[in-house]
């Protein structure tokens, strides 16, 4: 993931900004729901080429093994190719019932067509991913970084027409979405109305994407490590912010770890889960990482 990469991460101020004033108000709506706090933490990919040092020698089915270590996956493979029902069923069959998939909407819809006349393609996509059944966590829409508020009518139509039975999260990237004004207000209010999540992206070169504006009971966070020692300190700060959000009413956490050079995503994930478990008194399974010589922390 090269988006947001910088030459010298050491010069970046990674401090999390204050919450948007509306976030606390949104979370208040869910504080007395009585539901259990749901936490899903994972990586963006499961193949050996990217997650070097993660798989023990002899592992043949990467997804099946990955699902013994993590409880979820942010699925970028569905971004590059339209999924089909048979493939989705195979993926689902390799994971335990508690595992959740978070598939990205195919780029033929979001990038090439830029949401123009995509009703039929969206239906094909949704029909396919519905075969995840209970293993479907949420779908997420990532828009092109040149998709600006000038194209709002297409986005509004897409969000309103997206099947309400499928949880949806949205990531906008164009800088104009994060400036105060009518565009950002229109988007966040619509997401609130529809019960859809507003994705937060923590990456070195685009600190504006840390808008800290939640729109429902979900915090969907895409964390991009900078291959720098600061990555661990950043995760610790996230733990504290999530603890605050949980106290305010947060019901669900979806946290996915990337790196511009994917070498330590499982290590970062394990660190985050350990500290989150301790801070929130949780029991999320911590990945047992290997170097093919033995386990290591």
From TrEMBL:
Source domain of life: Bacteria
InterPro entries in UniProt: DUF72, UPF0759_sf
Pfam families referenced in this protein's UniProt entry, alphabetically: DUF72
Signal peptide: none
Segments forming a coiled coil: none
PANTHER family: UNCHARACTERIZED PROTEIN YECE (PTHR30348), UPF0759 PROTEIN YECE (PTHR30348:SF9)
The name this protein goes by in its record: DUF72 domain-containing protein
Source taxonomy: Bacteria, Pseudomonadati, Bacteroidota, Cytophagia, Cytophagales
